[in-house]
Amino acid sequence: MFAAPWVCRSCSRLAARPLRSSQLLRRASTAPISNAVLLPPALLQRAQKLAAEHASLQKSLATDFDSKTAKRAGELGSVAAALKDYQDAKASLSELDALLSSPDAELRDLARDDVPPTTAQLRSAARRLSAALTPKHPFAEMPCLIEFRPGPGGLESRFFTDSLFRMYQAYCARKGYRCKVVKYETSDASGGASGYAGESPLQEAVLEIEDPGSYDVFRGEAGIHRVQRVPSTEKSGRTHTSAAALWVLPSLAETGAGAEQEADFSDPESDFYVDVAEVKSEVMRARGAGGQHVNKTESAIRLTHVPTGISVSMQDHRSQHRNREAAWKVLRSRLAQKRREEREEMARSLRSSVLAKNQVTRGDKIRTYNYQQDRCTDHRSGVDVHNLPDVLAGGEMFDRVIESVREYLVQNEIEAVIADEQLASEQAEGKGKK
């Protein structure tokens, strides 16, 4: 009789136990537990490459400090740490796989107890590594502008657009985000009718969320929001379907970033750069109900970017100067978003058609609010939540919807990284054959 030193890294309590020589030869074949949570090879290759770069940079910094090198090493540190955790958890689970085949019943029981927590560790490490490998969106740390416009559905769509506007205002208030109304313009074509809970016929609105990082929180909200309900003006009780369009645009922070903003405005390489010579500026009288100021002074501003045809009009402020500032902010944000979308579209065209179908653009129907069924459904994440009044009040149910979309976007970005790595590998193989 002799001892076999079976010691699992995930559980140090397993000591060497005596086994008969005949027992060492008996091994029941079991499928590796870790297969279900292993990362794709392309993603692991990328992680290993970046971890090697991190180690090289750390070695270089030990003898010669350089701020640029240190910044890059800091960016790669999370990848290197997550890869180590993943590899350790994978090794532990592999050892447990082997221990489950042991002829020693007590040893198998101990190993079986360790499988669930170790599998959870591997899953957690895989998620962290995937997130670390996903390139950060260039606008992720910025504040944002949310634009609201009615879509198909006539007056009912304008009422619903106002309901969405209130929903995001309430959500920001509940979460503590600082927001302000940049533009709020109603239509005078309602004939005195009102929607649910006093909705106004909203023509166009812009809500600015001033907190850094708010773009990353709300970027998944861009697209077509559909509503199915019986309008308050409907006599026969028929359900109508209408929609509203939301745009989520990056916005430069106003406080403490003056020099940085000016650099972005004047740098032709910046997404926020606008050639003033390409912008047509018009002044006009404000429209709509108001006091002595409205319709009597030319305070309203319209800016048109001639090359793209993007036009912004602003009349919310009494001052022409303030309207001009607000119009320029929205114009720069729209152009920055358009340029970013064009680059993303070029990248998507290189990926597989399956991935391209998963991408959501501003023209897609992303969500449905069904009043009769008391239901809100996001068509990308597949989540269904009930208690629609809580959703429209920006409550906890709306939190669930937003979080499900953020998880969906992260998963899509991970798939895009995998596709890019596979494409790069195929291109490298193609060059090698030539």
In short:
Pfam families: PCRF, RF-1. The chain is of the alpha+beta class and 434 residues long.
Could you explain how this protein is built, in words?
With 434 residues, the protein is of the alpha+beta class. It is built from eleven helices and 13 strands. The strands form three sheets. The chain has an eight-stranded mixed sheet with strand order 4-5-3-7-6-11-12-13. A three-stranded antiparallel sheet has the order 8-9-10, with helices on one face. The radius of gyration is 28 Å and the shape is globular. The chain starts with a strand and ends with a helix. Residues 285-301 form the Prokaryotic-type class I peptide chain release factors domain. One of its GO terms (biological process) is mitochondrial translation. This is Release factor. It comes from Coniochaeta hoffmannii. One of its GO terms (cellular component) is mitochondrion.
**Structural category:** alpha+beta
**Measured on Cα atoms, how large is the radius of gyration?**
28 Å
Percent range for β-strand residues: 15-25%
What do the pLDDT scores average to?
79
Count helical runs: 11
Give the helix level as a range of percent: 40-55%
Sequence of secondary-structure elements? EEHHHHEHEEHEEHEEEHHEEEHH
Distance between the termini: 60 Å
Largest sheet: 8 strands, mixed
Number of beta strands: 13
- Strand order, largest beta sheet: 4-5-3-7-6-11-12-13
Shape: globular
Low-confidence stretches: 1-34, 255-260, 290-295, 350-363
GO molecular function, one term: translation release factor activity
Protein name: Release factor
Domain Prokaryotic-type class I peptide chain release factors: 285-301
Family: Belongs to the prokaryotic/mitochondrial release factor family.
